[in-house]
Amino acid sequence: MIQQPVKVLWNRKLSRAYYKIGLTCSDHYASAKPGQFVMLGLTGRRDPLLHRPFSIHNLLISNGITHGFELLYKVIGSATAALTQRKPGDVVDIFGPLGSGFLIPSRAKRVFVVAGGVGVAPLVFLISDLHRKEVDLSNYQVFIGGRTKEDLLCSNEFLDLGVSVLTTTDDGSAGDQCLITHPLEKALGHTAADVIVACGPMDMLACVVGIAEKHKVPCQVSIETMMACGMGACLGCALESRLETEHYLHACMDGPVFPADVLKF
Question: Rg (Cα) of the chain, in Å, rounded?
């Protein structure tokens, strides 16, 4: 983990609330794992004072060399609103990569990938990384859910990598009008999956974990939560554990990716 100032390469508005920002980085990010995150601070500002966590959305690789990475973010509060004002050449402060990542077993052939809203961010990195490693993605299925069509992100990125995508919205403005967990359970009723990976709101993750347990499918979840430090010092990202040896786990140090069976939802 390294803390460093990095330059903004681009900062693109995707829709009313969503942006992608490209940042330079040192070459140690070449070993970053899908699911890991960075803590980002805005230099020259006292508000927000603390860094904010963002999942690594993808690596920027040219001629086999990692020269940057992308973050996908949603404008929610003052920190993300200020981030939208950063322009190419501006400097932000980064430390990372932090935390644990997804681990797809080599035996896993049929994998279900479930994203809720901006929770899609680390899952694009996951599929892109597997594609770069020439993993067969023909039996992978991506499920993307959102409140409205504006919240359905990155479908084209998955399709370009040869992965099927199914979308749902709460209001029916795009895809099927239902929760994303409905087609997930329906798909599991037709064919078994080797593993499920998911990232999104806690309510969605709790439902995904329940479905995975019902169908006896191993499941990994990436937890979205606020962190003040990213290094386990503040204990602000505690999660209740099922483990006998640990009453609580911490998203920044033990996660943010966890085997679903170690957490209480």
Answer: 18
Whether omega before 183 lies within 30 degrees of 0, making that bond cis, reads: no
Read off the pLDDT band of 45 (50, 70, 90). Answer: low
User: Which residues, including other chains, have CB under 8 Å from residue 153's CB and lie 6 or more apart?
Assistant: 14, 18, 72, 115, 117, 118, 120, 144, 146
Strands (E) in the chain, as ranges, are: 2-13, 18-24, 37-41, 52-55, 58-62, 65-74, 91-98, 111-116, 140-146, 164-169, 176-177, 195-200, 219-223, 238-240, 248-250, 257-259
All domains in the chain, ordered by first residue: 2-98 (2.40.30.10), 111-217 (3.40.50.80), 225-265 (2.10.240.10)
For CA atoms 252, 255, 257, 260, give the dihedral sign. Answer: negative
Banded pLDDT at 230 (limits 50, 70, 90): confident
CA distance 45 to 50: 10
Has this prediction a pTM greater than 0.90?
Answer: yes
Q: Number of helices (H) and strands (E), helices first, in the chain?
A: 5, 16
Amino acid symbol at 177: Q
Task: State pLDDT tens for residues 240-259.
Answer: 888 878 888 988 888 999 99
